[in-house]
Design goal:
Layout lengths: L40 H22 L2 H14 L1 H4 L4
Length: about 90
């Protein structure tokens, strides 16, 4: 059995807006288990969509806009090969 190595990533958080003195809720990502192998394609798509929405909501509420912009650019650059159409 492989040991799970936890890694903390420390980031600046988004500033409070509109006089709201409470800081945004920060999210912690915990990979609890793997996707089951026996899911239908539709069930897997629903899980991936729900997890992506939850992660996006957490990041949008927690990170500064500049960090979000750069994260989006970094993700698109890393996955650009998936978006290219062969000629």
């Amino acid at each position: 059995m492989n040991a799970v190595v936890a890694k903390e990533i420390h980031l600046l958080r988004a500033a409070s807006l509109g006089g709201n003195s409470s800081p945004p809720n920060l999210k912690i990502i915990v990979g609890e288990s793997q996707m089951p192998d026996n899911l239908s394609i539709e069930a897997a798509k629903e899980i991936y969509a729900a997890q992506a929405k939850e992660l996006a909501d957490g990041l949008l509420k927690s990170l500064p806009g500049g960090t979000l912009d750069q994260l989006l650019a970094e993700l698109l650059e890393r996955k650009a090969s998936l978006l290219r159409v062969p000629r």
